[in-house]
Queue: 3 jobs
Job 1
Amino acid sequence: MSIQVKYFASLRDRLGRAEDRLAATEGMTVAAVWTALWPETPLPPNTLAAVNMEYASPGQLVRDGDEVAFFPPVTGG
Amino acid sequence: MNIELRDAPFEPLAELERHQASQDALRGRYGATAIFVGTMRDFNDGEPVRGMTLEHYPGMTERHLRRIVETAIQEWSLLDALVIHRVGALRPSDPIVLVAAWSAHRAAAFAACRFIMEELKAKAPFWKREDAAAGTRWVERNTPG
């Protein structure tokens, strides 16, 4: 199954790219998506995650076709 | 209810007037309008700031703003609400955000306007990057309300 991954703001700058595509496996969590893509980079503290544009916990399962996003704390307004 | 992201400067009070005039259903019914305008400062963390870029997560931003405003309308029985938020490049003194809430009486308008603003700051996926003397830097967290 295939997952679209997006990075925003300072996290995107730090990683040097805005998007990834991952051939994910059944039962994969949001945290496992990060580890599969960035095995040598621990998820920076305070990083937030979303699945299909809804905030998600690290333990949430992903499904085929999901859009997963990782980003720093939001600072709008 | 109206929610807009703008990539160019806007005039909050002119927007307020235009929105109010365009809503026939509002006429004669509201007794209270509470508004909040957030404006870009020329300093942050004790340093001068020359400009700012607002990035967002297209799609997620609109979805969360809509949900926040719908929640406020329901919770406080608002007659209407308006949110306009900038994205892109800003200069000091540029408005960043306008929140307006219309209700029959003032308590609901005040409370809903505050709620929308605080929820927006906590949940809407916007990020500020400042252009300071030492170069550009991402704003890491919101200041307490």
Job 2
Amino acid sequence: MRAWWPSLRPMLIALGIALAIGAALMLISGSNPLQAYGQIIVGSLGPNGWAATLSLAIPVIGCALAVSLPLRAGLINLGGEGQLVGGGITAVVVGTYFADLPFPLSLILAIGAAALVGAVIGFVPAIMENKLGVPLLISSLLLSYPIVAVTSFLVRFVLLDKGTGLPQTETLPAAFQMPQFGKVTGALFVLIVIIAVVIVIDRMLPAGFEIRMTGLNRKFSGYSGVAVSRMTLWVMAAGGMIAGVTGALVVTAFPFRFVDGALITPAYVWTGLLAAMLARANPVGAVVAAVFFSALQVGGAAMERETFVPRELSSILQAVIIIVLAGAIALNARKKQKVA
Amino acid sequence: MTEIFDLALLESVMRALTPVLLAALGGLLCEKAGVFNIGLEGFMLVGCFAAVAGSWFGGDAWIGVITAVIAGMLMAAILSFASVTLGADAIIVGIALNLLAVGLTSFLVRTVLGAQGTFQDPALDGLPIFLSQSPLTYLSWALVPIFVVFLRRTVWGFRLQGVGESPSAARSLGVNTKRYQHAAVLASGALCGLAGAQLALGNVVLFSENMTAGRGWVAVVVVMLGQAAPIGTLVAALLFAVTEAVGFRLQGLGLPSQFTTAAPYVITLAALVLVSVRRRTLTVRRARGTNSPAPSGGGATPPVPTDPATRATVSQGENHVS
């Protein structure tokens, strides 16, 4: 208990303050906070809610891991949208032009291609930072705009399903649809493999130690022989790869097509980013935080249906948690310094 | 070509320029004070909402402008308290503030203005227009020379730069560095508030969810491109504005909107790459103590400096999480 309590305490404080601010907002706008928070819990974890929470959690966990790997090394990957969308459209392109592939091969190829494209999109900002000195934070973000735009163009003009009148591609062939095992989707298994690989790298391999050391002190890590710029390349490529696979998992799930904006509007990437920050880039923590934030989002939608409090309350709570947490962590560090 | 370039284009360039320039001037102050402020996007979005809400309930666009400035400063106060007073990571707080702004404005547009997504009303008072531009546009132009004089000719300006360049030296000379940093961040909030007011009451007269659409991020890049100098920042912001305006025009001529809306971000990124490459080669030359051009072709490429000092010229905080 002692080992994780100190790192959990600021999180609980942050959660408490966020809930208080949310309650104040609701009181001002004339709603009952207790009722609203009750609806969030019932709506996200109750009999009708948990399945929705899980299905939202799959892409959010993917995005959280995609950010947490670079974040562990002190790098902020803001290009998640480009990587996610790039992976999604790649899977659809594979499904459209190699429609005759037999079942397991079809999905393996689609996900593999999505992983590759995601990795390349993650790699570009890393190489720009290493070779040209362009800050990764900014270039990864700016790169997303053209990728999202090109994808939107492909969906609306090249791959469009003309029959529906909506900006979406045609339904993927059956071989490219993620199979269900009872109530559980196959995407969950892919995700579990990703989680396992990230945890193994983080906990057991020397690379994981080097990443963490770099995150704690980049200069020191470089002096002690870690090839920091090479690490930047591969953690960003790996992060992009995870985001790309996540994109493929979204489009190969119901409704089995790429709907323009469907990967952006639910804010998978930003929820995942905040989850990774909440967990301070710890992969296990990132998964837990991603499930927590997914529950908050699903619960928020339920709350909106029941109480007229807008669902955006969930996004407000998430952001406030992170801001307070960042402050609390800084305050703790300062206290420790004074004691020492 | 005449279809693309005319007086109307110039006007739309100016409209595109004003919000980005105002926000970038705010970012410039923070950069000078050594605070990497990436919350400009969020400050501006809150400014947009506050401007519309203020104008709607106050019945006058100028009341909207004042509420926008106050709201921008309130957002900035969160950043300055967390990062300057407590010492929290400004990048993490900035990103969270941007997401907070999206959630908060979407929440408030529904609870306060009772609209879903977009609030628009003929009775909503917009900014007055003189010679096809809003007063805030003229203000933004006036601010550029004022910033030049402030930074080069005033004691406060010198001290502000000292705080960013060498905080310990500034402290040893008796400068209260934190006070300058607070002031810079709060001023950036006020400027972003003005930027938001221009966007929501000048360029258009409405509020819609996430209407800043990345302009605050562009402002962050513009400060880097302009190397945190007022004139440089103006030129860099102009580059963005011209691309956006030409893009709109080309869209009118039938180019798919997907390409024209993404173009300003691509051009901004490309410019950032060019400037970074140029700065890097200059640093290498200076490090060698020669002024001769770097050898091209054949032989080893010049060693690229990886020291933090070179990187710090690109951005103060960069992307390290502590």
Job 3
Amino acid sequence: MINHSFDTKIPLNVPQRQNPLAIGFIFLKFLRKAVRQLWLLILIVVFNKGDGYMAWLLGGVIAISAIQLVLSLISYFKYYFHVKDGELIISKGVLQKTNLNIPLDRIQTINFQQNLLHQILNVVSVEVDTAGSAKSELTIDALSRDKAEALRDYILQKKKELIAEKREEGELDEESTEGIDTPEVEEFTKPDKMVFRLSPKDLLKVGVSGNHIRTFFWIIGSVFGLLQFIDVTEEEAVDYVFKGISENTWGFGWFVAGFGVLIVASFFITLIQHILRYFDLRLWETEKGFKLIAGLFNRQEQSAAHRKIQIIKWVTDPLKRMFGLHTVRLFQASSQQVSAKKSITIPGCYEEQLEEIIATNFPSELREDYKEHAISPLIITRHVLYFGILPALAVAGFKAFTGDWFGLVYLLWIPIVWLLSRRYQRYWRWWINEETLTTRSGIIASRHSIIHLYKVQAVKISQSPYQKRKNLASVHFYTAAGSVGIPYINLDLAKRLRDYVVYKVEVSEGAWM
Amino acid sequence: MQETLFLNPTIDIGQLPHAEQSERNPLSPTYLKIQFLGLAITMAILVAPGLIMMGAGAPSMAYYLFFAGWGLLLIFRLIIIPLGFKKKSYSIRDKDITYRSGLLWHSVTTIPFQRVQHCEVNRGPLDQLFGLASLKVYTAGGGSTDLQVPGLSPEDAEQMKSFILKQISGNDQS
């Protein structure tokens, strides 16, 4: 382990300010926030030019913003942090003084973030994540890299000592019953083995095989959203477009061209989004888990301890399959609601990389001797009824009722749903052995999830009236980072599955996080 | 034609204790009264818009429809509540707690004590009025897994809570 000198060079036990560069970052943060909150207002004012009332409103908002800006700039000078007596102490606040004392053993993770500016200035912003309390996160906007690393090492070191002390005094038992904040040391100080690196070529593949359909609808959504602010309703816009087509003032060609532009735009926006987010993505396997760094302008560093990983999911779709790529997600336990932040996404993994990543948490011997199970075909009947027959009958019936016999074409929806449901049921698989459960589902995409049985928190067996009649049930396994469910299996099998998993949890000695 | 769970099990799953074989404890009948009282309060609040419509001289068709809907909801709830009550039960075993509920959509949730974060005894205003309590068990699985057993006598609830807490610390020492 690298030995940082905590004492002379970088003293951490006296109250100190952040790096002066933080003022700049505070200002940028303020700007970003202001623009995000006020762009609508600015748009409205621009489009209602000359409206005195609006101008007053804008003036008022600008005045308030100016005060906020001054306050946030002063806040830099009022922000002190230091480490003392096993606590990270932050004092801050301009008008209202706040003192935050965070016991080091409550600190879950310390993440560094660097956007482009950070990189140029060689500073990092530090995020300290604690479990339990609502105010679980605190951010230090800018610290020099040395100091940030010293702080992290110091905290981890102190935390380790504290835990060792506690363990000796036998206080740990009481503590660990209290909750997730089990004081465990996490070290990400020694990035030793690079497991995965996204090459520019693969990054391009990831971008090309991204979810363009989502972007497509996102664009349409934003266009409609924007129209509202220039006083055009959706109907007017749609009317305008269709009138243009039907009266041939535009010509059908224009419509097709517009559609083409939308598709091309979706493609490039998706591509750019992926490149911004996953540029030069590197995944390291550290002593205790993973560390991931990625991003073009905003380089994000995320970490996950092996112990904390509850679910691993991997997804592929026809487009990605063409390139042989999978997207892997690692879901970590968190005391707060499971947020996207707590899951680590690794796009663009090839088969063998996928296997390597899964194997770090689920060694292949834990995935041997799998017994394969399917789900009941009766799920097709149900899906066809709920998603096919009922909606199609409602729409077609209504159309026929209003004399539009052409509406019967909606009945074609039923066989489509039947085909999709059949595919869904036929593709659904779950595999179990005495240690792990893997599920596979999907209609067009293919989604896998894997969990350790002993990491399950709760099991729920549920039955709809129909399932009750057919002696079927759905089972859900809840972990500290989301759930894995199996629909439509035999009730008796569901109960045995539940009994086994509960048994497995009850005899397990391993820490689930 | 029982489907086997595992490929080659080393332990006999048939021998595992069934989470449901243990005794099913019904909730206190007083809880049914609370549910009816709760219904009365909700329905009393819900009737207000109808009365206002009537008083404001809205077309009679409007409030007829409203009262018809209101009446149907009342009848539906009156039938559902007692039937649903029968479906609610809990079991406590040495190492886990199970709660069942739901008349049409039935669900059975089991939480091993090993995974309990903490548990608490709650007493709402109606509970206090009728001398009842509910036990809430929290896990790290998030809101959807927190298990709440309503309609317990306060003594039972406290006893269950201390039993669970004892089991948790017992597990830790081993």
